[in-house]
Design goal:
The protein is of the alpha/beta class and about 300 residues long. It has eleven helices and eleven strands. The strands form three sheets. A seven-stranded parallel beta sheet has the order 3-2-1-4-5-6-9, sandwiched between helices. Strands 7-11 form a two-stranded parallel sheet. It has a two-stranded antiparallel sheet with strand order 8-10. Strand 1, helix 1 and strand 2 form a beta-alpha-beta unit. The structure holds NADP nicotinamide-adenine-dinucleotide phosphate.
């Protein structure tokens, strides 16, 4: 395992499964990719869940037994109701940085333990060491959490497998030609469901305090190979066409510029070397991490044109 602070495999053995009478776990980002899956895993395990949402209507698809509380990370005072009498908090931060310190102060005043969704910005692989405002924000929030004295577990996934849906699904559903830069750059996409499972365990089991978990998929794959694997899963021949980075920049909307520059720098730095791969998912979950092939097979519907 590549996580130096990993507190042994026996977290499951020391599990403190919560009962329906226990205080709830507060899940932020509950309508997002990881938070939404964490809500399902916790409720399936009988753990009471409170979900923080910005708009009540966005909670419509959450399970009926989840307590919905509105609040916004950019307005720290709006979080007090959500934080009242919670056990642990899952913190997802995609908001601007300005209110992070005030939010962490409030968390620390109400809860003993936080599980924070960060990124592998401490991992000494060039892919993770490029200029990256999001990594700087994650580092700052981790610093604030540590300084607050609250117990914490930091979960650091690499590239989510589901990025493929955002990046390539439209082209795949269309003519099957994916035009994209740095086809030879290798990443180890981690299945969002594996990330959510690790988070859910860290929230409901004892033994994860101080845990610092770098999560990746089980294999290093070039971006072109990832497209080919999706084609295999769909039974279709997909084509990967190399797109010059400048064209990628030009085609990106203005608002996505920082993310585009961050990705281009990371892919460029990754050329010619395998992606960083950890065994942390399988070490923690006691089963192999899901492969990208598995992810693609399980998302075939979303990658297939709807029949008319
Ligand atoms: N994508 C990757 O490959 C990757 C890899 C490593 C780490 N990460 C990290 O993962 C995190 C994103 O996780 P995700 O993909 O699960 O999130 P996501 O799908 O982008 O969803 C973001 C969630 O945060 C909520 N949210 C946004 N602004 C908020 C605010 N001001 N107050 C309260 N809630 C707010 C959103 O609620 P609404 O429904 O109201 O918008 C939504 O539930 C980021 O910190 C990112 O750096 C991503």
């Amino acid at each position: 395992m590549n996580s130096p602070q990993h507190p042994l495999h026996s977290a499951q053995a020391g599990a403190d499964a919560m009962t329906a009478t226990a205080p709830p776990v507060l899940v932020t980002g509950a309508t997002g990719r990881i938070g939404r899956a964490v809500v399902d895993l916790l409720t399936d395990a009988g753990v009471p869940v409170r979900a923080l949402v910005r708009r009540p209507e966005s909670a419509a698809t959450l399970p009926a037994d989840v307590e919905i509380v509105t609040g916004d990370l950019t307005a720290p005072e709006s979080l007090d109701a959500a934080l009242h009498a919670v056990s642990t908090v899952f913190l997802v931060w995609t908001a601007p940085p300005q209110t992070a310190a005030a939010v962490v102060d409030r968390l620390a005043a109400h809860t003993q333990r936080v599980v924070y969704l960060s990124a592998p910005h401490r991992t000494p692989h060039p892919f993770f060491q490029q200029p990256n405002p999001m990594a700087a924000l994650h580092a700052e929030i981790e610093r604030l959490i540590a300084a607050s004295g609250v117990e914490s577990t930091i979960v650091r996934p690499g590239m989510f497998a589901s990025n493929a849906l955002f990046w390539w699904a439209a082209a795949i559903r269309g003519d099957g030609v994916v035009r994209w830069p740095y086809g030879a750059a290798e990443t180890a996409p981690v299945d969002d469901r594996d990330v959510a499972e690790v988070v859910a365990r860290a929230l409901r089991e004892s033994g994860h305090v101080g845990g610092d978990y770098v999560l990746t998929g089980p294999e290093s794959l070039t971006q072109a190979e990832q497209v080919r694997i999706i084609g295999d899963a769909l039974g279709r021949r997909l084509t990967f066409e190399e797109m010059p980075p400048d064209e990628f920049r030009r085609e990106a909307p203005e608002a996505a510029r920082p993310a585009v520059e961050m990705l281009l720098a990371a892919w460029n730095a990754a050329l010619g070397r395998p992606a960083h791969v950890t065994s942390t998912v399988s070490d923690l979950l006691g089963r192999p991490a899901r492969t990208f092939r598995q992810w693609a097979a399980d998302h075939a519907t979303a990658l297939t044109p709807a029949a008319d």
